[in-house]
Design goal:
Elements: H1 3-26, E1 42-44, H2 45-65, H3 73-96, E2 103-105, H4 106-130, H5 142-166, H6 190-206, H7 209-236
Antiparallel strand pairs: 1-2
Helix pairs in contact: 1-7, 2-3, 2-4, 4-7, 5-6, 6-7
The structure holds NADPH dihydro-nicotinamide-adenine-dinucleotide phosphate.
Length: 252
């Protein structure tokens, strides 16, 4: 594919994210605590997570590994970081969830597969076919150092907050309680906050349009989801901490 065509595709994908944002804000995505049978056929929550997230891993890995560019240490680091996140999200995380008997709509799985396919493609294709501009000196560039620091900080917050949530239930339980540990003292969704910081860090360390597209989509998906979770908590618990915000401590 010609590089100009590729970048046209990536900019269009960013435009789709920006145009979709008001819609995603309004429609509560019906999985997890918001799961609903009104959206048609359902699938097990565990398998739903794996099937919808796997394209982000498989497509990305294929386009990188079968790319035309020679081995490059810097793009290999980007490849490893992305792959670690998505191996956890698509293979490890779904089977750690304590959501016995929970289902999610197949429609959500198909939509998320499309989204993950596209993000896996633009980022894998970029690293394997387009990104011939990273010399080893990029590892000393302030953008790389700041980006990778954000990436690891965000990943730590994301995974540790997911862990707190998963362990709120004993095996076999399915109810909800108010989380109180870690960043939950200030915000309802530190796992979403961490994921946004992580992919913003990826965009900064790669200083690339595909990385930016992924970060924009992450915000477009997770900011509304955090607001919907926050509102759900406030409705579900009359003693929900009043000062707790949805996504950004003291602000939002
Ligand atoms: P939640 O944060 O709502 O929940 C995660 C797990 O914890 C689920 O098993 C949930 O159970 C359980 N849980 C949550 N809250 C409680 C509670 N108060 N008491 C007991 N158990 C609880 O999941 P999301 O689907 O919103 O997000 C999961 C991960 O996926 C996050 O790390 C998020 O960042 C990531 N994600 C990334 C997206 C992207 O675009 N990059 C999009 C969506 C998610 P149950 O399922 O029964 O509610």
């Amino acid at each position: 594919m010609d590089n100009n065509v590729f970048y046209l595709l990536v900019y269009s994908w960013i435009a789709v994210a920006l145009l979709s944002f008001p819609v995603i804000l309004r429609i509560v995505a019906p999985y997890g605590r918001h799961s609903s049978r009104k959206w048609g056929a359902m699938i097990s929550n565990h398998w739903g997570w794996t099937i919808m997230e796997l394209p982000a891993l498989v497509v990305f890995v294929c386009f990188y590994v079968f790319g035309k560019l020679p081995f490059n240490t810097v793009t290999f680091i980007f490849f490893l970081l992305y792959t670690i996140h998505y191996t956890n999200r698509s293979i490890v995380f779904p089977f750690r969830l304590r959501t016995r008997g929970k289902m999610m709509p197949l429609a959500i799985v198909f939509m998320a597969m499309g989204f993950n396919f596209m993000n896996g493609f633009i980022n894998g294709y970029y690293l394997g076919w387009v990104a011939d501009n990273y010399g080893i000196s990029w590892l000393e560039d302030p953008r790389f150092i700041m980006g990778i620091t954000m990436f690891f900080a965000g990943m730590f917050v994301n995974i540790s907050s997911d862990n707190i949530l998963i362990h709120l239930r004993k095996p076999g339980e399915t109810g909800y309680v108010i989380p109180k540990a870690g960043l939950f003292r200030w915000i309802s969704c530190p796992n979403h906050f961490g994921e946004i910081v992580e992919w913003t860090g990826y965009a900064v360390m790669t200083w690339s349009t595909p990385g930016l597209a992924f970060a924009v989509w992450t915000v477009a998906n997770l900011l509304p989801r955090a607001l919907h979770h926050h509102r759900w908590y406030q409705n579900a618990f009359s003693d929900y901490p009043e000062k707790r915000k949805a996504l950004i401590p003291y602000l939002l």
